[in-house]
Automatic annotation (TrEMBL):
Keywords: ATP-binding, Kinase, Magnesium, Metal-binding, Multifunctional enzyme, Nucleotide-binding, Thiamine biosynthesis, Transferase. CDD domains: HMPP_kinase, TenA_C-like, TMP_TenI. It comes from Microbacterium sorbitolivorans. Its EC number is 2.5.1.3. It catalyses: 4-amino-2-methyl-5-(phosphooxymethyl)pyrimidine + ATP = 4-amino-2-methyl-5-(diphosphooxymethyl)pyrimidine + ADP; 4-methyl-5-(2-phosphooxyethyl)-thiazole + 4-amino-2-methyl-5-(diphosphooxymethyl)pyrimidine + H(+) = thiamine phosphate + diphosphate; 2-[(2R,5Z)-2-carboxy-4-methylthiazol-5(2H)-ylidene]ethyl phosphate + 4-amino-2-methyl-5-(diphosphooxymethyl)pyrimidine + 2 H(+) = thiamine phosphate + CO2 + diphosphate; 4-amino-5-hydroxymethyl-2-methylpyrimidine + ATP = 4-amino-2-methyl-5-(phosphooxymethyl)pyrimidine + ADP + H(+). GO terms for biological process: thiamine biosynthetic process; thiamine diphosphate biosynthetic process. The keyword RNA-binding does not apply. Mg(2+) binds at residues 78, 102. This is Thiamine-phosphate synthase.
Length: 705
């Protein structure tokens, strides 16, 4: 039923893409060069032989395929007939890369089948727009460039540069893009920043004395995550629960490199503070200058500042920084006893520092002190005070409701215009909360420095910091530190094998990214007319016939997810879902007249090919399977709300709006979320791309009828 092309056992990985150009290699041994490159970390290899006959190129392709043996995705440049001949000969070759003059993508896709990988070179806006408009499954990726002028492509269009690449990636929409043309060592960071999924190189590997080392260096450079340098300016807590000690733990736990300039030395433990020594402000300035003269500073967290002189020193130092890093100010003004820690001069000096901050994170007594008001006794009053402070200084304020009573602990990011975002967690019954404010503000600064971009960057950073601090408090009682108010467990996530907090690992961020696709499904004629009962019966029968074809393959892939899972409970869930796909759902299909299986449509074939390509990697496969739960559930609930007695498709509407399907969807989301929290960056990228592409396939699947 589906084409018999060699099926890649994993999604195409564009990170380190070798274009093995035979003209560049010349008399060199292409088989050895490719073998060494793959051993070093090349993830995709394209064989390009513009000057060779089909027969000569076929010999090279099959020889390379025999040596690589599926360790990387192997593609043929331009020559459809060579690819088909290599596949016919049993070579482990996975697809094609074509140019704008090598035949249209639809025509080529029809010839090579749904399972083959197909890439396309594109650079001009009209080329990118045309590629983005194709139905999902026609193209797997775009090669975009040249980024710079290159001797291997003398006829390439005017170089794009990095800004041009970023525009091109945006125009390509959901299609992954590999940057090509004059790129190589030292370019990974800028290519990633432009949104590319990898670098395609020719000379960097083909002309290298050691192709394995060259490929390893390129791969390592691409995989190397930029770790932000985060500076804590705060006091010292020798018991380790608060101050710079808590800050440094929080910075490392949330993915940064921590540095510290000490504003005060304290003698304290979990039962209280017994002494404070404040070094001269001049010495603090010397610490700060020593850091900024040598180290790139990506974010600054400011905590305890003992007096006006210290505050003024920090204010002047921050004001002189260029470029200015993100600044989070946690104004330590009120002792646990309720006594003010800053005199009137220091409080006035603090106003100037607040104006240089991006976010201020006072607790409720500190928020009131900054405004000269009484401490808020309700959350609404606290939000009003936060808005007033934000308006007065032109900053964001993270209002914290930990001092209030109630079953929940709310936080809110507030601007002069009001509440930007709210976050809420169940209140935890524990006395081990020493250093919560220090830890939260440090986490906020670090997460923003790691992931901050876009209009919602502070919102996401605040949310992730809120969730991280909740986990640290929840784990605090497992520590045995002192006999008073103990510290948080800053390392709880590391011990659990979780990656540092990232927006890209949050499934509601994924959902937000595909929401336009989901809204498109609602707006498409098929779903709209299905809901109101006006859908033509012949169209519905076409849909359920293709859905029957899809469900048998989908069931196999759910079973594959169970097979790949190491967790018994997860294994049982995917297995039960597989059985339900062919039992419960197919029974409904049969009751609706779905009989013998019909040939797969191009849309069905493309969707299944995509899922099968994800089937070699557990985390990527379950991410690819999730939209068939999640989108179906959301669309199903909407359609179920339109059901009524006598609706011609009432039985269909009630199935996908059922509580049982909603519960299955919740479990599937939970399992994928758990996998995303544990995934490294490369795996997480593949998971998100698989989820997004499945969502596009869902829309195309509905729209085909």
């Amino acid at each position: 039923m589906f084409d018999t092309a060699l099926k890649p056992v994993h999604p195409i990985d564009l990170r380190t893409y070798l274009v093995a150009d035979l003209a560049t290699i010349g008399d060199g041994d292409v088989v050895r060069i490719v073998d060494e490159a793959v051993a070093g970390g090349a993830t995709t290899v394209q064989i390009r032989g513009k000057l060779l006959s089909d027969a000569e190129l076929l010999r090279v392709v099959t020889a390379v395929a025999d040596r690589v043996d599926g360790r990387a995705t192997l593609l043929v440049n331009d020559r459809v007939d060579v690819y088909l001949a290599a596949r016919e000969a049993g070579a482990a070759v996975h697809g094609l890369h074509i140019g704008q003059s090598d035949g249209g993508p639809l025509e080529v896709r029809e010839r090579i089948g749904a399972h083959a990988v197909l890439g396309l070179s594109a650079a001009k806006p009209e080329e990118l727009a045309a590629a983005a408009a194709l139905r999902p499954g026609v193209l797997d990726y775009l090669g975009v460039g040249a980024v710079r002028a290159t001797p291997t492509k003398p006829d390439a269009p005017t170089p794009l540069g990095w800004e041009g690449l970023a525009r091109a990636v945006a125009q390509a929409g959901p299609l992954p893009c590999v940057a090509i043309g004059g790129v190589g060592f030292g370019d990974a960071a800028e290519a990633r920043a432009a949104g590319a999924s990898g670098l395609a190189v020719v000379r960097a590997i083909c002309s290298a004395d050691d192709p394995r080392a060259a490929a390893r260096e390129l791969r390592d450079e691409w995989d190397r995550e930029r770790i932000p340098n985060v500076l804590s300016i705060a006091g010292s807590d020798p018991s380790g629960g608060a101050g710079i000690q808590a800050d440094l733990k929080s910075i490392q736990a949330t993915g940064g490199y921590g540095m510290a300039a000490v504003t005060a030395l304290t003698a304290q433990n979990t039962r209280g503070v017994s002494g404070v020594h404040t070094p001269p402000a001049e010495f603090l300035t010397s610490q700060l200058d020593a850091i900024s003269n040598d180290v790139r500073i990506d974010a600054v967290k400011i905590g305890m500042l003992a007096n006006a002189e210290v505050i003024q020193a920090v204010t002047e130092w921050i004001a002189a920084l260029s470029p200015k890093p993100a600044v989070v100010l946690d104004p330590v003004m009120i002792a646990t006893s309720g006594d003010r820690l800053l005199d009137a001069d220091a409080s006035r000096a603090l106003d100037g520092l607040i104006a240089l901050a991006d976010v201020v994170t006072p607790n409720l007594p500190e928020l009131a002190a900054l405004l000269g008001a009484d401490t808020a006794s309700s959350w609404d009053e606290a939000l009003g005070q936060a808005r007033e402070l934000a308006s007065r200084h032109g900053v964001l304020v993270l209002a914290k409701g930990g001092h209030l009573d109630g079953d929940t602990a709310p936080d809110a990011l507030v601007s002069a215009g009001g509440v930007v975002a709210s976050f809420e967690s169940p209140r935890i019954a524990t006395t081990n909360t020493h250093g919560t404010g220090c830890s939260l503000s440090s986490a906020l600064a670090t997460i923003y420095a790691r992931t901050g971009r876009g209009a919602d960057a502070w919102t996401w950073s605040a949310r992730l910091a809120h969730e991280w601090i909740h986990g640290a408090i929840l784990a605090a009682d497992a520590l045995e530190v002192g006999s008073g108010s103990g510290p948080l467990d800053h390392a709880y996530a590391t011990r659990a094998g979780l990656a540092a907090p990232r927006r890209d690992a949050e499934l509601d961020a994924w959902w937000g990214d595909v929401l336009p696709i989901v809204e498109g499904i609602y707006g498409d004629d098929f779903v709209a007319s299905l809901g109101d009962g006006t859908l033509d019966l012949a169209r519905f029968e076409t849909y359920i016939a293709q859905d029957s074809v899809y469900l048998f393959a989908y069931s196999d892939l759910l079973a594959r997810a169970a097979e790949l899972s190491a967790d018994p409970a997860e294994k049982a869930f995917w297995r039960a879902s597989s059985e339900a796909a062919v039992a419960t759902e197919m029974e409904l299909h049969r009751s609706r007249g779905a009989g013998e299986r019909v040939p797969a449509s191009p849309e069905t074939e493309a969707y299944v090919a995509h899922l099968e390509r994800a089937g070699g990697e557990h985390a990527v496969l379950i991410a690819a399977l999730l939209p068939c739960f999640w989108i179906y559930e959301q669309v199903g609930l909407t359609l179920a709300s339109k059901n009524h007695a006598g609706h011609p498709y009432g039985d269909w509407l009630s199935t996908y709006g059922s509580p049982e399907f909603t519960e299955s969807t919740r479990q599937a989301i939970e399992l994928v979320q758990r996998a995303a929290h544990r995934a490294d960056r490369a795996t997480l990228t593949r998971m998100r791309e698989a989820f997004t592409l499945s969502s596009r396939h869902e829309r195309a699947f509905f729209a085909q009828a």
